[in-house]
Amino acid sequence: MKKFFRLTLALGMTAAVALTALGQAQTSDPAITATRVIGKVTEINSSAGQITLKTEAGSLVAVKVSEKTTFERMPPGETDRTKAVKISLTDITVGDGVYARGYVAEDRKSVPAQQVVIVSQSDIAKKQEQERLEWRRRGVSGIVSLLNATTKEVTITSRSLMGATQAVIIPITDKVKMRQYPAGSIPKYSETKAAKFEDLKTGDQVRALGDKSADGTRLTAEEVVFGTFRIVGGKVTAIDAATSQIKIEDLQTKKPLTIVLKPDSVIRRFPENAAAMFGGGMGQGGAPGQGGAGGPARQGPAPQGAGAQGSGGQGPGPQGPGAQGPRPGGGANMADMLERLPTISVSELKVGDTIIMSSTQGQDPERITAISMVAGVEQLLTMIAMRQQQSGQPRPQNVDLNSNFGGMFGGIGTP
After folding, report:
1. pLDDT at residue 269, rounded to an integer
2. Global pTM?
């Protein structure tokens, strides 16, 4: 029982995952043992006194309750049993995470429960939203550009919407919680592993939570999460919605790539009036034909998270919500901004769309899995290329995707 409460905290309240990884497995499904079942509520039959649970592995178990069954609800992240609140069967809803204690039937398909402990889905959602807002307010993201083994400091860099390179130095002390995403998977915060400074590599993508210095160049971190990911871009040449796969022509190599979209992959679309949305362009004077910083207001639905902080109706421009405080060069980095765009489905992608995406490092370089994808970025890449014109690189295919979009690995759960 004690392990259950510890696990809900350690896995960031992702109940469907956390509630199935517990204890010593006595069957092929680790969520089912001789004396307990852990899963997610799929059905409640109050008149029959039965709750149906589905484990992470997909097993269905009927939890039988009676007048002798005790019911409790634990707050998300809480491990202190004294914080449990007594509830009744009617307080449980579909989607809640459940720990049911009792002697499980030999076929492992039912259990007469002596005790039912839940972690409410709505409570989890509220806590995760609070944590997401905290990461947006006090977080930084970018790619590792320098590692100082002597001082145990990592420097991460990103680019602002105005093109300035932003560098933040993060000292890694014993007080910093270090977590690393496993290789070759869609990054889930609940699946991160404990890590140390020596696990960091140049080019890794990083997110860190903490207090920034007044000039924004240093961060006293509470937590650092990182992983090794690849950023690619290209034009969509074919879409197979049935298999959730698309084909693109790589922006830089001109070679074909197959992009696999998993259920956890996140797809967003860059708005057509992007120049107005981002204050008239990526450099001085804005893009041709577009307004300046005082251009027309953005139309359509607000990006996810936009408006969650601050007020005044600003969009996600350099001074708008999610700007994450002062940054050298001004404005939030592009990875931060893109992550606030509304999500779309694979069916809304179009042949001819230009996309940028973060992906896992797979064994086949011509077949990659999408983590976070943004479609319709033609204007964005053109504006970046115009900004680079002075350096002799005016073409979109010459845009350095990693330096401009480092940090956009997305992920499930917080951060």
Report:
1. 93
2. 0.64
